[in-house]
Amino acid sequence: MILHYLRTFLHRERKEMRLFVFGLTGLVVIALLWQFFEKKGTNPHVIRGVFIGLGSILVVIVNTFDVSRTRGLNWDTCFIIHVAFGTYFFVSLLLTCILGLLTKYRNINKFWHRFGAINTAFALTLTLLVAVATRIFR
């Protein structure tokens, strides 16, 4: 049943898909920025972190499906750099989550979790900048 809804959703018009991806990316960026200004270690902090991860994965899935369906994946320099920075973002996000758990349950210094979070924000910024550059220079 879920696969049916997903398949139906993924066969929408390109304009609708781009709007969905743009909106979800915006929400992920807002959630990531929100992490730096709200109280740390609370349930909402953890929920926002999970949303950032799942939302980012959904953006990648929808974008990959949409691009491969419409024009095909073009492995030019900008796209390869975008994929590399995207991978850097997901690895940084994973490390930030692990460091957050270690901070909470093993009492390691909060500096490492903060450093991972800043790295994750930097990686997302680079990924999005290259995505914009890819659209401009193609």
Model description:
The protein has 138 residues and is mostly helical. The chain contains five helices and no strands. Helix 2 (14-37) packs antiparallel against helix 3 and helix 4 packs antiparallel against helix 5. The model has no long low-confidence stretch (mean pLDDT 87).
Helix and strand pattern: HHHHH
CA-based gyration radius: 17 Å
Largest sheet: none
Gross morphology = globular
End-to-end Cα distance, whole Å, is: 38 Å
Helices and strands in order:
Elements lengths: L1 H9 L3 H24 L5 H28 L6 H29 L4 H28 L1
Summary tags:
138 residues, single chain
In short:
This protein is mainly alpha-helical. It contains five helices and no strands.
